[in-house]
Amino acid sequence: MTSRRSDPDDWYEYDHDEAPVLPSDEVVDADIRIVDGVAAALACNVRVRGRRLEVLVQNQVVILLGEVDSEEARLAAGIVAWAVPEVYDVCNGLNVAPES
Fold first, then answer.
1. DSSP secondary structure, 32-95, as one string
2. Burial call 30-63: b when 16+ CB within 10 Å, e when fewer
3. Where are the domains of the chain?
4. What angle, 0 to 180 degrees and rounded to 10, lies between the N-to-C axes of helices 25-44 and 71-82?
5. What's the alpha-carbon Rg for the chain, to the nearest Å?
6. Which one, of 30, 27, 31, lies nearest residue 55 by Cα?
7. Whether this model's pTM surpasses 0.70
8. How far apart are CA 4 and CA 24, in angstroms?
């Protein structure tokens, strides 16, 4: 019998004897469609176009990383990501560049 930790936030601890649960092919295909759609939509958006942003998608959740010029551009990028079909959630991790 394996002892389990009582901390529900401790995602690192798991039973090594159990097989990992892998996402279904449908979820993986959706993630690929979403990352392509978000990247294309961001490239077409005037407020964020030309910025080097990273778009990650896992289980239909979009994670935006990188740096933009303004809070307006950061919010615009999040709105653009939400507008892509099949997106379940958006984590906007974009930072606003400090003014020089």
1. HHHHHHHHHHHHH-TTTTTS-EEEEEETTEEEEEEEES-HHHHHHHHHHHHTSTT--EEEEEEE
2. bbeebbebbbebbeeeebbeebebebebeeeebe
3. 25-96
4. 140
5. 17
6. 31
7. yes
8. 27
Residue 63 Cα to chain centre, angstroms: 2
* The dihedral formed by the CA atoms of 46, 50, 55 and 60, expressed in degrees to the nearest 10: 20
pLDDT in tens, 15-43: 667 777 777 888 889 999 999 999 999 99
CB atoms within 10 A of CB 76: 18
CATH number listed for the domain at residues 25-96: 3.30.1340
Tokens of 88: 């379940």
CB contact set of 27 (below 8 Å; sequence gap of 6+): 59, 60
